[in-house]
Amino acid sequence: MRNPPPDSALHALMTQFPRTGRLDWIGLRPARDVPMAVVDDALAQADAGLAGDRYAGGSGKRGATLIQAEHLPAIAALSGRDAVAPSTLRRNLVVSGIPLIAFKGRRFRIGEVLFEGTDPCDPCSRMETALGAGGYNAMRGMGGLCARILQGGTLRVGDPVRWEAA
Predict the structure, then answer these.
(1) pLDDT (tens digit, 9 = 90+) per residue, 25-71?
(2) How far apart are CA 104 and CA 87, in angstroms?
(3) Residue 145 near residue 100, CB atoms below 8 Å
(4) Which residue range is the domain that position 122 belongs to?
(5) Strand 107-110 vs strand 113-120: parallel, antiparallel, or unpaired?
(6) Nearest C-alpha neighbor of 97 from the set 76, 68, 140
């Protein structure tokens, strides 16, 4: 969906975030097919990604991947599990308390770091192995968001997550 004109009622609704979210978890993928490194803080580099993550230094469009904490129980239920650890889904950041998908095409901050939501983070075929049969479909629509890092800094578990007016 394109952003509505700034003077429209729809724009007012789409930019209303009365609550602040929270960064709950940080994970880095040091290499393909190796366990994620769960950390309490990470260096976010503008137009590059997260230091220590295998995608750091790429195009920047996928500088970090995020997933909504509130979706983890739904993904678990849809894949026939009691729970799903964030590292199983291989996203970098788990956020709670704010509707993550609303940041697509918009700027937002996690602590001191400025992001721009670029694209939905669709599941990959590896989710069939990670979650079992039907794992790919269990994540559809709940895979999270890819984001570009516009202004770097240190991310810390517990940092506030908030929309940034342009």
Answers:
(1) 999 999 888 999 999 999 999 989 999 998 787 666 788 999 999 99
(2) 23
(3) yes
(4) 20-163
(5) antiparallel
(6) 68
| Domain CATH for 88 | 2.40.33.20
User: What single DSSP character describes residue 159?
Assistant: -
Q: How far apart are CA 6 and CA 163, in angstroms?
A: 15
What phi and psi, each to the nearest 5 degrees, are found at residue 120? Answer: -60, 150
**How far is it, in rounded angstroms, from Cα 14 to Cα 164?**
12
Q: What token pair was written down for 68? A: 């909504």
What region, left, alpha or beta, does residue 148 occupy, with left being phi > 0 and alpha being psi -120 to 50 degrees?
beta
Distance CA 44, CA 125 (A): 27
Q: Could you tell me if 111 and 160 are in contact, meaning their C-beta atoms sit under 8 angstroms apart?
A: yes
Q: In which residue are the tokens 């998908």 written? A: 101
Is 97 within 8 Å of 124 (Cβ atoms)?
Answer: no
**In the block, residue with structure tokens 């202004």:** 151
Say if pTM beats, i.e. exceeds, 0.70: yes
Domain count, the chain: 1
Strand 21-28 with 64-68, pairing = unpaired
- Name residues whose C-beta falls within 8 Å of residue 7's C-beta, 6 or more positions apart in sequence: none
